[in-house]
Design brief:
Layout: H1 3-24, H2 33-53, H3 64-84, H4 88-96, H5 106-152, H6 160-172, H7 177-187, H8 195-221, H9 225-253, H10 258-268, H11 274-282, H12 287-313
Helix pairs in contact: 1-5, 1-8, 1-12, 2-7, 2-8, 2-11, 3-4, 3-5, 3-9, 3-10, 4-5, 4-11, 5-6, 5-10, 8-11, 8-12, 9-10, 9-12, 10-12, 11-12
Transmembrane segments: 6-27, 36-54, 66-83, 90-114, 120-146, 167-187, 207-225, 290-312
Membrane topology: Multi-pass membrane protein
Keywords: Cell membrane, Membrane, Transmembrane, Transmembrane helix, Transport
């Protein structure tokens, strides 16, 4: 196993394991999981996302390698929706197939493996990763929820334009896309956050990764994983292997070569990010499967990320 990969992934596994132990020992009750999810989704994640986007200069970003990444992601997202139908469950599973843990695992991994040149490529992706994938997924999920409620009689049927407008509003006034958009707009002013604002945001953002992973472990403690291990393994194989294969093929077709293509493929091979789990909690769908999938995907990545790095090194 690649030592760089192990050094990046094992802390993630240990944090999930710590949460699992806390749940099994009863230190955190199952009734507290929703409150913990609200803490992460409504406070910690917005702080992290706003601060990350508040320094992004759009004019300095290089988009061709990133375009290959998103093309592969949207193709896989669309295929998942086509196979599973237009509903909130399909949308959350499609997000799980395409959303990588690019910050907590990707930054140390790429930094150690490919140095500053690789980090420039990865940070270009990270600056748009959540903005594009999470905002797009939120719009799709909100449309799916509206469609489900209309069909079940919980919501009156509306013209499609009204439904789309409402879904877009719900997607923007949302604890994930809103701070991303606000941070990006702030960055274009050229101003810098004052220290008394930046420091609390930094501390809240730093708490996001470990607490989110601990919550995955807590939820895992109350989830019968044996029931989900087969579909969780299938989801993990799609995320860890099929996703990078699509990104590699599309990147090659677009003429992306060398380090930029390598970093995009390695980023696609990373395991599922914790935000997928938070979406499943928020929209109350497939919580058990997504919880198990995040854990299985992370463990499987010890092998699959090493394989992706080796394969790209042969080109």
């Amino acid at each position: 196993m690649n030592g760089v990969v192990a050094g990046s992934l094992l802390p993630v596994v240990l944090l999930i394991g710590a949460g699992f132990m806390a749940g099994r020992l009863g230190w955190i009750k199952s009734a507290s999981v929703k409150d913990l999810a609200n803490l992460i989704f409504l406070l910690l994640a917005p702080a992290l996302l706003f601060r990350a986007m508040s320094t992004v200069d759009v004019g300095q970003l290089h988009f061709k390698p990133v375009a290959a990444y998103f093309a592969g992601s949207f193709l896989l997202f669309g295929l998942t929706m086509a196979l599973r139908g237009f509903n909130r469950t399909a949308a959350v599973l499609a997000l799980s197939n395409t959303y990588s843990n690019s910050v907590m695992i990707g930054i140390p991994l790429v930094g150690l493996a490919y140095g500053p040149p690789g980090m420039v490529v990865l940070l270009t992706l990270i600056s748009l990763h959540s903005l594009i994938l999470l905002t797009s997924a939120t719009v799709v999920i909100e449309l799916a929820v509206a469609n489900e409620e209309t069909r079940s009689g919980k919501r009156e049927k509306r013209p499609m334009t009204s439904t789309v407008a409402q879904a877009l509003r719900n997607a923007i006034i949302h604890p994930v896309p809103l701070p991303i958009i606000a941070g990006l707009l702030f960055a274009q002013t050229g101003l810098a956050l004052p220290g008394w604002v930046d420091k609390p945001l930094m501390l809240l953002g730093q708490a996001f990764g470990p607490i989110a992973l601990v919550m995955v472990g807590v939820t895992l403690a109350y989830t019968p994983v044996g029931t989900y291990w087969r579909p969780a393994l299938a989801q993990s194989v799609i995320k860890n292997l099929l996703h990078p294969m699509l990104v590699a093929a599309i990147g090659w077709f677009l003429g992306v070569r060398g380090l930029p293509l390598t970093v995009m493929v390695v980023a696609a091979s990373l395991p599922m990010g914790a935000n997928v789990f938070l979406f499943s909690q928020r929209y109350q769908t497939s919580e058990g499967l997504i919880t198990a999938s995040v854990a299985v995907s992370t463990a499987l990545a010890l092998a699959t990320v090493s394989l992706s790095m080796w394969a790209m090194g042969q080109l």
